[in-house]
Amino acid sequence: MMRKRLLHPASIFLIGALSLRGNGEEQRFLPPGLNYENSGIVNMKTDAGAVGDGVTDDTAAFKEVFEAGKGNEGRFGESRFIYIPAGTYLIREPIEWGDKKKFIRGDGVDRTILRLADNSPGFQDPDDPQVWLNTKGNIHYAQNFLQRICDLTMDVGAGNPGVIALDYHTNNIGGMFNVRIRSSDPEKAGAVGLAFNMRPGPGLIWNVEIDGFDAGIQATGVIHSMTLAYMTLRNQRRVGIEVDRQSLFISEMEFEGNVPLLDMKNRAYVTLTNVNARSTNAQDTAIRVREDSVLLVRDLRVTGFRTAIEEEGSDSVTGPHVAGYVSGEARSLFPGGSIPNMPVKRPPIPDYEPTSEWAVVEATSEVSRDVQRAIDDGVRTVFIKPGPGGGQLKDTIVLRNNVERIIGFGTVLRSVGDWGDIDSPYYSPNIPKGRSSGYGRPVFRVEDGNAPVVILEFLHDEYGQAGYQVEHASQRPLIIMGMGGDYRNTVTGGEVFILDSVGRSYHAQRQRFWGWQVNTESYNWSPHVLNDGGMMWIGGHKIEKDRTKLTTINGGWTQLDGGFYYRNRERVGPAPAITAIDSTMSVGFRTYGRMYPVLVEETRNGETRTLTFEENNRGPELPLFQGVHPPSLQRFLQFLEQNP
Hey, which of 357, 366, 460, 536 has its CA 20 to 30 A from 301? Predict the structure, then answer.
């Protein structure tokens, strides 16, 4: 192995010479052998004394760490980043998060297992189920930011029919990545695998498997919506997913069992995109839509069910392939044909290289300089180690050379000094700006380099501090995962993938854009999201404030599969929720709070038409709006045919 040059001993560490072994297991995500004092990082084995042998009771260690809050005077009161090395950890009691901004990461679903002891007291009554792991605790329901669970398995054991494995809650940004939730009971007993019952959202549930339970997923309450992608549900005993009032946006799901996939009631709102459901019970319907609930389906395939969709007041749909379905009617403002479903591309997330190859940079006052030095020295992965107070960004970090991944453990980066203000060369004169006059210098600029894809992963900013967070100045694919900030591209023809992000504006010009859980909040930017001549798909767009949320111009094509448009405050004044000029759009969303006077404003050849809230026959929900601009749609269909 070629050793890398150590450029700045005070703040960059190259760890190739360090042992990767701790308690007999290799650590996959946290470089060992470093001093994590004052970083907020806790290793459950080395710091908290958990054993993880599947026999020893580790309940006390987990309660001490997970239930510690910011004001707690114990040794783990300020812990934010909790690492669980490989092992099976036996837990006998409920665990309740003690504070917000906790990042829990295991060593992989087959390596780190949290197991509820068999026949645990308190989890025996399915009519009065109890939560095993609760990420909300006593935090206000709208202020519980940045809760993450990654790379582990939760096993509720056997003989616990009254357990809710996880009641997950986060706000604005946060999510679960690469998690398995299972019942190892012979009868797959358990009340609920994954619950959203405390007004959560927005958040992203990504690559999660749920095996067993009466209900695989249970969601209640009207705010703030959750986005789920690349899910697997199997062996549920009553229903795969049940939704009461809540909004779920689901793409890429596999379901297998002998019960219904989805039961909606009490004005629930659900979008399904690219879902396969297989049943062994020919008497069931796959989806039940009840009590004024709203369903939008794009590409549902069912096998073994009696019917695919049964909605109160509507004819049943048999399947086996449902290319499209909407509760009520699709709305349009101009004549046009049909719009095919936009293909959803899975982000090409690269594998992690061994932690022995990572460059480790301290989050200090010189973090910009030190990260740039590591990049220019040729490293592939830069890990920004959390530090007290966070790193202070002083200049733009340019991603070039061999760098593939900039990764944090929820590391906070704060911009200091003047980040300037520059106009965007791609801002259309047809789109009114908010009070902000332009873009500031970016924190990260992606340029050409040797890595075929670049990923920014689990880095946090001080919301709204810097100018523009990410500038995409290359056609190389860029993945932004679990990170706050804003985005624009200055080189056209590339592609970007946004997974779980909160910011003010995402502006893409002649770009291919895929977004899962894009949360935008700003009075200053209008629109929040701009598709200027490109192809844009968003699954799960939650917003706040009173500006325009989504605009498509210059012959672009936009598909929005589920929006929760929460106009909670009015400061600037009325603005249309969605606008389009000579472009194609196929969108569905729910409004909440203060209603938008204009839901959609569309302009064709200089003529502008509007769909107002009063004209919408579904009240706060617009299940599907389609605006077909034939020239732009045909251009993109030809592109997709040539680039499958």
Answer: 536
Integer Cα distance of 399 and 451 in angstroms: 10
Contact 627, 585 (CB under 8 A): yes
Q: Tell me the one-letter amino acid at 221.
A: G
Which residues are CB-neighbours of 194 under 8 A, at least 6 positions away? 165, 166, 168, 181, 205, 208, 210, 216, 217, 218
- Residue 421 reports pLDDT greater than 70: no
Tokens, residue 67: 């239930």
Interval 177-190 mean pLDDT:
98
- What's the pLDDT band for 643 if we cut at 50, 70, 90? confident
Residue with tokens 């944090």, as numbered in its chain: 408
Based on the number of CB atoms within 10 Å of its own CB, is 174 exposed (0-12), middle (13-18) or buried (19 or more)? buried
Q: What is the distance between the alpha carbons of residues 503 and 31, in angstroms, rounded to a whole number?
A: 29
Q: What value does the mean pLDDT take over residues 243-268?
A: 98
| Residue 264, token pair as written in the block | 């909606």
> What contacts 351, CB < 8 A, 6 or more positions away?
none
Calpha distance 613→299 (Å, rounded):
28
pLDDT of residue 40: 85
Residues with Cβ within 8 Å of 568's Cβ and at least 6 positions away in sequence, in order, are: 544, 545, 593, 594
Going by C-beta distance under 8 Å and a sequence separation of 6 or more, which residues neighbour residue 529? 505, 506, 507, 518, 520, 536, 538, 541, 549, 550, 551
Q: How far is CA 285 from CA 289, 309, 319, 408, in A?
A: 10, 6, 10, 44
> DSSP character for 439?
B
Query: Rounded to an integer, what is the distance from CA 535 to the centroid of its chain?
Result: 20
CB 192 within 8 A of CB 215: yes
The pLDDT, as a whole number, for residue 479 is: 98
Place of tokens 């946060």: 174
**In 309-392, where does DSSP find H-type helix?**
367-376
Q: What angle do CA 446, 452, 455 make, to 5 degrees?
A: 50
pLDDT score at 75: 73
